[in-house]
Amino acid sequence: MPTHRAVHVESANAPLELVDVATEAPQLGHVRIDVAACGVCGTDREFHAGHFPGLQWPITLGHEIAGTVAEVGDGVEDFAVGDRVAVGWFGGNCNRCVPCRSGHFMQCERLEVPSWHYPGGYAESVVVPATALARIPEGLSFVEAAPMGCAGVTTFNGLRQTRAKAGDLVAVLGVGGLGHLGVQFSRAMGFETVAIARGAGKAEEAAQLGAHHYIDSTAHDVVAELQKLGGAAVVLATANSASAMAQTVPGLGPGGELVVIGVTAENLPISPLDLITNGLSITGHPSGTSRDVEETLHFALQTGVRAMIEERPLAEAAEAFAAMDESRARYRMVLTM
Q1: Which tens digit of pLDDT belongs to each residue from 51-70?
Q2: Is the backbone of residue 214 left (phi > 0), alpha (psi -120 to 50) or beta?
Q3: Mapping DSSP to helix (H, G, I), strand (E, B) and coil, where does residue 197 land?
Q4: CB-based contact 182:148 (threshold 8 Å)
Q5: What is the pTM of this model?
Q6: Fewer CB within 10 Å, N or C, the chain?
């Protein structure tokens, strides 16, 4: 049986090790992808730590996959060998459960996520359900496409599902792996864009990414600064801090929305009175479907939105993971095969 290289994690918090594994043929409704690039996402650390239930060790991390269809299983009609595809957090759905039948595909009762429900993309080859596939448009490289499967679609989709209109004030809390894309997408969508981060060090970079305004949360009152600008229609919260998220709520204008995409288990310390008085809303936003990924890729191609990427070969997966885990990445690490 042919083999390929993949990165294994034998148990929770174990080292990332490059090994040879059998290359499986795709089963019914699946395809096999020759992986060209795979992003290293912050959520990978949660898998590595064993924080998701039902993990089958060893696991292979990686849910920002881009590559070429190499084999097609029975029952797959819309994809062919040679197609350029991406797979993100949305790694397949059943189309049978009540959420799927209601159009809530991200809440599928049998939703599959690469590295959780099947081996992920820190590998030369991966087998995925055909429902997970997003077509990569010509003009985007595999390296550019990979982070769009999770970080890109989460920020793009999170913004476009709000009630904000072109010209409205939109604030992005955090200028990191998610936030640096959120700032770019906000500007490209025609919003008056505010970047909020700790310290003055990111002010120039935020401006280069497209922010019209920058608020240093360590030196200025975020709420006062947002209200000076008229109040935000939306705050896209990418920072993994419940207190920082909550502190922006009084900076929202009437009917404003706090959209939460930064993952934390902390409780949000928010007063219902603040929500009721100004008619505010708080929404948790999960990633996006394979079609959402396709639309993210097309919008990025049209507008020039790109992740700031550092590339590493698969053999240096452990180093890339450490750089992400220790927040040394600027801003997305991508493994290349």
Answers
A1: 999 999 999 999 999 999 99
A2: beta
A3: strand
A4: no
A5: 0.95
A6: N
